[in-house]
Amino acid sequence: MGYSGARGGLEAILAAEDLARRKRDHAPAPWASTEQITARFRLAVDRVMGEAGLYDEPTAAAAFRQAEGDTLEASHLLRAQRSTLPRLAVSEPVDPGEMTVLRRIVPAFREPDGPQLLGRTSDYTGRLLQQPAGPPEPRPEGPATVDTAERTDEQRNPRRFLDLLRKMELVAEGRTGEDPEPHDITRRPARPPADRSAVLAAMARAESGALMALWYRSILGPDGDVHEITLGELRHGRLPLRVRHPHTQNPVTVGEFRVTEAEAIEDLDGAEEDRTRFDIGYGLCFGHNERKAIAMANLDVANRRFGRSGPLEQLLLLTLDGLDSGGFLEHLKLPHYVTFRSMTERKQAMRAAADAGEEPPVRAAQPVGKDCR
């Protein structure tokens, strides 16, 4: 708002910020602690971490609290916080097969290797609003109420369903090793044509609702990217975080982080495709966000099949970042009176030319996004 010519602009801005702070800090309800937010709003915290690209639950909870529940604003705060932090090390590549599984479902197969772990979910219950009525009563112990923490190591690390398909020689493996070095989109922006890792990274940081909308468009939309997808496996669990020791250069486990992983199976039926095999789409994102991971896996396949011949890859790379799109939308609330005055004068000039029987003036094309500068 620095170009605003109205008097009192800075004072109004400071007053508005002070009002927002006072309303937030002195609300009738008590200030929610970080622990309360991570426990009660865990999925919102996970979404903020994923869209911000920074895995730290307490900081994400603090951003969610400061943003008053606005996940996009919280992601903005978290990315701003991340930009102030030094990059001390780069983590080692981790095999998702090492995941300690908290939830695992295999919709494509009735009896996969290892158990189906439903974990913590309300997918199979009715969507009915429940009112809190005090602390829950203790449930009796019994076989049906055994804590899932008592699962064995073998059950927590089941064999992947994709291994079964590979054993049956049903997976198209031609893309293995295409993209050995991951593209760091936080240091170098990705533009079409991009490596697969860049597209996956962009989707992992994408605004979840926008990603799902683009996935739905790719299924039912006007682009003709109709493809038959079966969800092969969906996992939520913990992965180790490893870095190299600065002195010994040996990998050292310094912590854990939770991720959601999805593998989607697509029937190859193109004229130049191997119709005897399936293609596999992959999605992995921070925290517990199954919708995003499933949409990622579906769009990964769609992009490889249709992205270079249509607009899909460009949409994935350039339009899904919530901070980019939200920032462009938010800027519409800033003063635009200079631009609008110019538009008004053009309309008046065109009307005067029409009244005089003259040809209206032709306006030169203006790039998108330049109207407020």
Query: Roughly how many Å apart are the termini?
Result: 11 Å
**Class derived from helix and strand content:** alpha+beta
| Count of individual helical segments | 13
Could you say which overall geometry the principal axes of the C-alpha atoms support?
Answer: globular
What is the oligomeric state here? single chain
- Reading the helices and strands in chain order gives HHHHHEHHHHEEEHHHH
What would you say this structure looks like, in words?
The chain is an alpha+beta fold and 373 residues long. 38% of the residues lie in helices and 13% in strands. The protein is built from 13 helices and 4 strands. A 4-stranded antiparallel β-sheet has the order 1-2-3-4. A hairpin with a 6-residue loop joins strand 2 (229-244) and strand 3 (251-267). Helix 3 (42-52) crosses helix 4 (57-66) and helix 9 (208-220) packs across helix 10 (290-306). The chain starts with 8 loop residues before the first helix and ends in an 18-residue tail after the last helix. The model is unreliable at 1-6, 141-148 and 369-373 (pLDDT under 50).
Which descriptors apply to this entry?
373 residues; alpha+beta; four-stranded antiparallel beta sheet; globular; disordered N terminus; disordered C terminus
